[in-house]
Amino acid sequence: MTTKPSYILETKSLDVFYGDMHALKNIDMQIEHNKVTAFIGPSGCGKSTFLRVFNRMNDYIESYRMEGEVFMENENIYSKSILVDELRKNIGMVFQKPNPFPKSIYENVVYGLKIQGIKDKKILTERAEKSLKQSALWDEVKDDLNKSALALSGGQQQRLCIARALAVEPSVLLMDEPTSALDPISTAKVEELIHELKEKYSIVIVTHNMQQASRISDNTAFFYMGDLIEFGKTEEIFRNPIQERTQNYITGRFG
User: Is residue 1 part of a domain?
Assistant: First the structure.
């Protein structure tokens, strides 16, 4: 019987370049199973670039170049044998702005499953219900699944995008500032949802909101100018950071 690796995601000596720009510098990080890991730091410090390393979304950027290694459960995800589509099924992503397709609520949720070739209506319906329940949206939309997703509020659209990511049953959920376009009530709902989802998923979130990071994450990484300054338990990072730069950022002295 193979033992489960201690970490779901890991980087070793990771450097990222956009042309001549050195965007991430020698990052070593281990991300734990079933925890929420938050990336904080000022704009342009490399948080989103680092997040997108894990599902290879940076591959679409022409000037992008990477050195080092990135693992998911001990498998190097940049090796030639990796099927990127399979990887992205396993590592879902939710973006800053809700991006539902101009289709019905139901069609949005089952979109990824249909791409995988699943045509069985029973499976699609069951999976749609399950993921809408997981994203705390089911009670609000169950009577009108044929309604256009674009008619939902911003907060509902973001929860729909979370449901869409969950429908393909990933192991990891990447979230790039998922509440920055939402009002406080919708933000609270998404935060509550993140807290519930970590029982089944490993979640990595980029956030500019320091209070949010302290509320929802188990571990926090502080990035500055492409460097990983400090990484550890959220409580320690916020209460007793080792690095002065972390302290200055958290207390609002810069950034």
Answer: no
Q: What is the reported pTM? A: 0.94
Amino acid at 107: E
Contact 237/220 with Cβ under 8 angstroms? yes
Residues of the domain holding 181: 7-250
Contact status, residue 111 vs residue 190, Cβ threshold 8 Å: no
pLDDT of residue 6: 77
Residue 252, pLDDT score? 85
pLDDT score of 59: 93
What are the C-alpha distances in Å from 213 to residues 20, 109, 160, 179, 194? Answer: 32, 28, 22, 12, 12
Identify the CA nearest to 11 among candidates 61, 60, 63, 46.
46
Any idea what the CATH number is for the domain that residue 110 is in?
3.40.50.300
User: What are the strands of the beta sheet with 219-224, ordered from one edge?
Assistant: 91-94, 172-176, 202-206, 36-40, 219-224, 227-233
Mean pLDDT in each 10-residue stretch from start to end of the chain (255 residues)?
75 97 97 97 95 96 96 95 92 94 97 93 96 95 97 96 95 96 92 94 96 97 97 97 94 74
Q: Name the phi and psi angles at 83, rounded to 5.
A: -90, 115
Distance from C-alpha of 255 to C-alpha of 224, rounded to nearest angstrom: 9
Q: Cα dihedral sign for 220, 190, 99, 31?
A: positive
CB 193 within 8 A of CB 207: no
Torsions phi, psi for 147 (to 5 deg): -70, 150
Domain count of the fold of the chain: 1
